[in-house]
Amino acid sequence: MTARRIPFLTLTPGEDAAAVRAAIERVVARGWFVLGPEVEGFEAEFASAMGAAHAVGVGTGTDAIALILRALGIGPGDEVITTPLSAAYSALAIMMAGARPVFADIDPERLTIDPDAAARAIGPRTRAIVPVHLYGQPADMSALDRVASRHQLAIVEDCCQAHLATVDGRPVGTIGVAGAFSFYPTKNLGALGDGGAVVTRDRALADRIKRLRNGGQTDRYHHVEAGINSRLDEMQAAILRARLPFLRAWTARRRALAARYRAALDGSTVRIVPEMDAGHVYHLFVVRAQEAAARADLQARLAAEGIETLIHYPLPIPRQPAVAATNPAECPIASKACDTVLSLPLYPAMSEADVDSVAAAVKTGSYSGGPK
């Protein structure tokens, strides 16, 4: 057992700590905690950073997806195509809107939704496609855009793991009708609690989502439709405003560490999920073992050496009991991926030496630790 541990990530504020503390103190001193100047400021700043015309702060990334669908008029009786390999919340958001998720299998290399499989899944009730930019890797948006255009479907981008990612230079979230972002603490831009946002170029859509997030109110105590309570609070908005200026440097750091992993793991027995676009932002650094047993052995060996790893995701969404009533199709490529993927530590504060140590342990089991 090594004398030191390499965690999967760290959530403690670092270089941003002073800015975060100042933001918290500002909100407390003002005494305004819900839908105030911090949310308005963050919405404007986040929209600008993401290359979008409008942003709307909401309670979670899950709510962001569901609210976009509802604002588009998608609900009971409709179907929405999405990926089987993601956090289950991608599909649960579709169900929250009242629609049925339909799963199209993934591209075996990129691991995002396969545009050809999505095309085959289209039926008479299909209204939209929700691609997930998985692990920070953008989906094949050019091909998906062609499919959606041919069938007059909306594209709602799940960008919850892909802050600042681009596709052929185009920011994610601006390619479809709208994009959903999460600020869960583990995300590339994380709050100190839950939070989410919608970005869109459509002012009318943004205005309706603003209404829906706040109980369907046009003004106080006047509810014109059945909205929900999903408001990004002032404290989290202020924290996100404090952290947003660091995001580009943090993203560059993630990319540099990922490149170091790729070089160090060259010739190893694991397969690295390929970088299909330079716009990848490496929310996670994912490798694949040859089979489930090999992954279990690798993960156990790394744990014995003090290296923490996680599996994103161990079960394809169609096999989750929560979606069983939707009669989901089997997705064998996604199922195989769920048996073999393993996420290695990667976060902006991670050192190059720790990347080298993890890579050495993956390749040879020779990681010996020692004091920092």
Can you describe this structure in just a few lines?
The chain has 372 residues and is of the alpha/beta class.
Give an account of the 3D structure.
The longest helix is centred in the C-terminal third of the chain and has 18 residues, at 247-264. This protein has helices at 17-30, 37-50, 61-71, 89-96, 115-121, 141-151, 203-213, 234-243, 247-264, 292-304, 332-340, 352-364; strands at 54-58, 79-82, 100-103, 126-130, 154-158, 166-167, 170-171, 178-182, 196-200, 217-219, 222-223, 271-272, 285-288, 341-344. The model has no long low-confidence stretch (mean pLDDT 96). Strand 6 (166-167) and strand 7 form a beta hairpin. It is α/β, with parallel strands linked by helices and 372 residues long. A 7-stranded mixed beta sheet has the order 1-9-8-5-4-2-3, sandwiched between helices. Strands 12-13-14 form a 3-stranded antiparallel beta sheet. Strands 6-7 form a two-stranded antiparallel ribbon. It is globular, with a radius of gyration of 21 Å.
Key descriptive features of the protein:
globular; 12 helices; three-stranded antiparallel sheet; seven-stranded mixed sheet; 14 strands; 372 residues; alpha/beta; single chain
Low-confidence stretches: none
Estimated structural class: alpha/beta
Largest sheet: 7 strands, mixed
Mean pLDDT reading: 96
Oligomer: single chain
Per DSSP E runs of 2 or more residues, the count of β-strands stands at: 14
